[in-house]
Write a structure and sequence with these properties.
It is built from 8 helices and 11 strands. It is an alpha/beta fold. A 9-stranded mixed β-sheet has the order 2-1-3-4-11-10-9-6-7, sandwiched between helices.
Length: about 240
Protein backbone atom coordinates (compact mmCIF):
# COMPACT_ATOMS: atom_id res chain seq x y z
CA UNK A 1 0.00 0.00 0.00
CA UNK A 2 1.36 3.39 -0.97
CA UNK A 3 1.68 5.66 2.06
CA UNK A 4 0.87 9.28 1.29
CA UNK A 5 3.21 11.67 3.04
CA UNK A 6 1.43 14.55 4.76
CA UNK A 7 3.27 17.85 4.32
CA UNK A 8 3.23 20.07 7.41
CA UNK A 9 3.13 23.77 6.52
CA UNK A 10 3.53 26.40 9.23
CA UNK A 11 1.24 29.35 8.52
CA UNK A 12 3.14 32.44 9.68
CA UNK A 13 -0.01 34.48 9.99
CA UNK A 14 0.42 38.25 9.82
CA UNK A 15 -3.24 39.24 10.23
CA UNK A 16 -6.77 37.99 10.55
CA UNK A 17 -9.13 38.73 7.68
CA UNK A 18 -11.31 41.83 8.10
CA UNK A 19 -15.01 41.25 8.78
CA UNK A 20 -16.16 41.68 5.17
CA UNK A 21 -13.74 38.99 3.95
CA UNK A 22 -14.13 36.79 7.04
CA UNK A 23 -17.87 36.57 6.35
CA UNK A 24 -17.22 34.77 3.03
CA UNK A 25 -15.09 31.74 3.99
CA UNK A 26 -14.16 32.26 7.65
CA UNK A 27 -10.67 33.09 8.90
CA UNK A 28 -7.34 33.10 7.10
CA UNK A 29 -6.37 29.63 8.37
CA UNK A 30 -9.62 28.25 6.95
CA UNK A 31 -8.94 30.02 3.65
CA UNK A 32 -5.55 28.29 3.38
CA UNK A 33 -7.14 24.94 4.30
CA UNK A 34 -9.46 25.49 1.29
CA UNK A 35 -6.51 26.54 -0.86
CA UNK A 36 -4.61 23.30 -0.12
CA UNK A 37 -7.70 21.08 -0.39
CA UNK A 38 -6.85 18.02 -2.44
CA UNK A 39 -3.24 18.20 -1.25
CA UNK A 40 -1.88 16.10 1.61
CA UNK A 41 -1.21 19.17 3.74
CA UNK A 42 -1.73 19.91 7.41
CA UNK A 43 -1.39 23.49 8.65
CA UNK A 44 0.13 24.79 11.88
CA UNK A 45 -1.26 28.25 12.69
CA UNK A 46 1.33 30.68 14.10
CA UNK A 47 -0.24 34.13 14.66
CA UNK A 48 2.98 36.18 14.41
CA UNK A 49 1.02 39.46 14.47
CA UNK A 50 -0.14 38.50 17.98
CA UNK A 51 3.41 37.84 19.16
CA UNK A 52 3.64 34.09 18.40
CA UNK A 53 6.80 32.56 16.92
CA UNK A 54 7.65 29.01 15.80
CA UNK A 55 9.30 26.94 18.53
CA UNK A 56 11.66 25.59 15.87
CA UNK A 57 11.75 25.80 12.10
CA UNK A 58 12.09 21.99 12.19
CA UNK A 59 8.47 21.75 13.45
CA UNK A 60 7.17 21.88 9.86
CA UNK A 61 8.30 20.80 6.41
CA UNK A 62 7.91 24.35 5.17
CA UNK A 63 6.60 27.77 6.18
CA UNK A 64 4.29 30.31 4.56
CA UNK A 65 4.12 34.02 5.38
CA UNK A 66 0.64 35.44 4.77
CA UNK A 67 -0.58 38.82 3.65
CA UNK A 68 -1.30 41.68 6.05
CA UNK A 69 -2.92 45.12 5.93
CA UNK A 70 0.28 46.45 7.53
CA UNK A 71 3.27 47.66 5.54
CA UNK A 72 6.56 45.81 6.04
CA UNK A 73 8.25 49.15 6.79
CA UNK A 74 5.86 49.81 9.73
CA UNK A 75 7.84 50.02 12.98
CA UNK A 76 6.35 47.00 14.76
CA UNK A 77 8.10 44.33 16.84
CA UNK A 78 6.26 41.43 15.19
CA UNK A 79 7.40 42.58 11.75
CA UNK A 80 11.02 42.53 12.94
CA UNK A 81 10.35 39.04 14.33
CA UNK A 82 9.05 38.06 10.88
CA UNK A 83 12.28 39.31 9.28
CA UNK A 84 14.33 37.23 11.73
CA UNK A 85 12.29 34.14 10.78
CA UNK A 86 13.00 34.80 7.08
CA UNK A 87 16.75 35.04 7.68
CA UNK A 88 16.70 31.95 9.92
CA UNK A 89 14.81 29.97 7.24
CA UNK A 90 17.45 30.95 4.69
CA UNK A 91 20.33 30.03 7.04
CA UNK A 92 18.72 26.69 7.94
CA UNK A 93 17.60 25.97 4.36
CA UNK A 94 13.98 25.57 5.46
CA UNK A 95 11.43 25.96 2.62
CA UNK A 96 9.63 29.31 2.86
CA UNK A 97 6.84 30.88 0.81
CA UNK A 98 5.91 34.56 1.02
CA UNK A 99 2.55 35.86 -0.22
CA UNK A 100 1.80 39.60 -0.70
CA UNK A 101 3.04 41.13 2.60
CA UNK A 102 5.11 37.92 2.92
CA UNK A 103 6.72 38.53 -0.49
CA UNK A 104 7.60 42.06 0.60
CA UNK A 105 8.85 40.91 4.01
CA UNK A 106 11.22 38.37 2.44
CA UNK A 107 12.57 41.07 0.13
CA UNK A 108 13.06 43.58 2.96
CA UNK A 109 14.58 41.01 5.36
CA UNK A 110 17.21 40.06 2.77
CA UNK A 111 18.19 43.61 1.82
CA UNK A 112 15.60 44.61 -0.81
CA UNK A 113 13.35 47.66 -0.67
CA UNK A 114 9.57 48.07 -0.45
CA UNK A 115 7.63 51.28 -1.12
CA UNK A 116 4.14 52.48 -1.92
CA UNK A 117 3.40 51.70 -5.57
CA UNK A 118 3.54 54.74 -7.84
CA UNK A 119 0.51 53.42 -9.72
CA UNK A 120 -1.74 53.30 -6.64
CA UNK A 121 -3.75 50.22 -5.70
CA UNK A 122 -3.23 46.98 -7.63
CA UNK A 123 -6.44 44.96 -7.34
CA UNK A 124 -8.44 42.44 -9.32
CA UNK A 125 -7.33 39.49 -11.42
CA UNK A 126 -3.84 40.27 -12.69
CA UNK A 127 -1.82 38.48 -15.35
CA UNK A 128 1.85 37.89 -14.56
CA UNK A 129 4.53 36.75 -17.00
CA UNK A 130 6.87 33.99 -15.91
CA UNK A 131 10.28 35.40 -16.83
CA UNK A 132 12.23 32.56 -15.23
CA UNK A 133 10.66 29.10 -15.45
CA UNK A 134 10.25 27.26 -12.15
CA UNK A 135 10.78 23.48 -12.20
CA UNK A 136 7.58 22.95 -10.18
CA UNK A 137 5.33 25.41 -12.05
CA UNK A 138 4.45 24.77 -15.71
CA UNK A 139 3.58 27.48 -18.21
CA UNK A 140 4.77 30.96 -19.12
CA UNK A 141 2.35 32.99 -17.04
CA UNK A 142 -0.19 33.00 -14.24
CA UNK A 143 -3.38 34.89 -13.39
CA UNK A 144 -3.98 35.62 -9.71
CA UNK A 145 -6.05 37.97 -7.58
CA UNK A 146 -4.16 40.93 -6.17
CA UNK A 147 -4.82 43.49 -3.47
CA UNK A 148 -1.90 45.72 -2.59
CA UNK A 149 -0.65 49.29 -2.32
CA UNK A 150 3.00 48.53 -1.58
CA UNK A 151 5.42 46.67 -3.79
CA UNK A 152 9.02 45.53 -3.91
CA UNK A 153 10.97 48.19 -5.81
CA UNK A 154 14.41 46.65 -5.35
CA UNK A 155 15.05 42.92 -5.11
CA UNK A 156 17.64 41.54 -2.69
CA UNK A 157 21.01 40.86 -4.31
CA UNK A 158 20.67 37.08 -3.93
CA UNK A 159 17.10 36.93 -5.23
CA UNK A 160 15.89 36.17 -8.77
CA UNK A 161 12.73 37.72 -10.23
CA UNK A 162 10.58 34.89 -11.68
CA UNK A 163 7.28 36.74 -12.14
CA UNK A 164 6.53 40.21 -13.47
CA UNK A 165 3.77 42.51 -14.76
CA UNK A 166 3.69 46.07 -16.07
CA UNK A 167 2.06 47.28 -12.88
CA UNK A 168 4.31 45.19 -10.62
CA UNK A 169 7.75 44.53 -12.18
CA UNK A 170 8.98 42.50 -9.16
CA UNK A 171 5.91 40.30 -8.71
CA UNK A 172 7.67 37.14 -7.59
CA UNK A 173 11.08 36.16 -6.23
CA UNK A 174 13.06 33.00 -5.67
CA UNK A 175 16.03 32.82 -3.32
CA UNK A 176 17.95 29.59 -3.83
CA UNK A 177 15.86 26.46 -4.34
CA UNK A 178 13.73 26.65 -1.20
CA UNK A 179 12.33 30.17 -1.09
CA UNK A 180 9.43 31.34 -3.28
CA UNK A 181 7.47 34.58 -3.11
CA UNK A 182 4.62 36.22 -5.00
CA UNK A 183 2.89 39.58 -4.71
CA UNK A 184 -0.57 38.27 -5.63
CA UNK A 185 -2.86 36.12 -3.46
CA UNK A 186 -3.27 32.55 -4.80
CA UNK A 187 -5.43 31.70 -1.76
CA UNK A 188 -8.00 34.43 -2.47
CA UNK A 189 -11.28 33.63 -4.23
CA UNK A 190 -13.40 35.93 -6.43
CA UNK A 191 -16.17 35.91 -3.79
CA UNK A 192 -13.73 36.95 -1.08
CA UNK A 193 -12.07 39.79 -2.99
CA UNK A 194 -15.42 41.03 -4.27
CA UNK A 195 -16.55 41.51 -0.66
CA UNK A 196 -13.17 42.92 0.35
CA UNK A 197 -13.02 45.47 -2.48
CA UNK A 198 -16.59 46.62 -1.85
CA UNK A 199 -15.79 47.17 1.83
CA UNK A 200 -12.83 49.37 0.84
CA UNK A 201 -14.55 51.56 -1.74
CA UNK A 202 -13.96 54.73 0.28
CA UNK A 203 -10.23 53.96 0.57
CA UNK A 204 -9.67 52.66 -2.95
CA UNK A 205 -12.23 54.61 -5.01
CA UNK A 206 -15.30 53.44 -6.94
CA UNK A 207 -13.69 53.52 -10.38
CA UNK A 208 -10.76 51.29 -9.33
CA UNK A 209 -13.07 48.90 -7.48
CA UNK A 210 -15.53 48.67 -10.39
CA UNK A 211 -12.68 47.96 -12.82
CA UNK A 212 -11.34 45.23 -10.51
CA UNK A 213 -14.80 43.67 -10.03
CA UNK A 214 -15.07 43.39 -13.83
CA UNK A 215 -11.96 41.13 -13.93
CA UNK A 216 -13.20 38.53 -11.45
CA UNK A 217 -14.52 35.99 -13.97
CA UNK A 218 -10.97 35.40 -15.32
CA UNK A 219 -9.71 31.81 -14.91
CA UNK A 220 -7.23 31.79 -12.01
CA UNK A 221 -3.99 29.86 -11.47
CA UNK A 222 -4.75 29.16 -7.78
CA UNK A 223 -4.66 25.36 -8.13
CA UNK A 224 -1.36 25.25 -10.00
CA UNK A 225 0.20 27.58 -7.40
CA UNK A 226 -1.03 25.31 -4.57
CA UNK A 227 0.62 22.39 -6.41
CA UNK A 228 3.79 24.41 -6.95
CA UNK A 229 4.06 25.36 -3.27
CA UNK A 230 3.68 21.73 -2.16
CA UNK A 231 6.18 20.49 -4.77
CA UNK A 232 8.71 23.18 -3.81
CA UNK A 233 8.40 22.27 -0.11
CA UNK A 234 8.74 18.56 -0.92
CA UNK A 235 11.92 19.46 -2.82
Amino acid sequence: MHHVQVIRIGLLRMTELPDAAFAVHGGLTNLFEMFFRGQQVSLLDVPVHEGATPESLDDCDGWLITGSPNSVYDDLDWIRTGEEIVRAALDQERPLVGICFGHQLVAQALGGRVEKAVGGWGIGAQRYDTVRPLPYLPGDGITLLASHQDQVVQAPRDATVWSTSDYCPIAGLTVGERMLTMQAHPEFTPALVSALYDSRRERIGDRTVDAAQATLSAPLSNRSIADAIVRMIEG
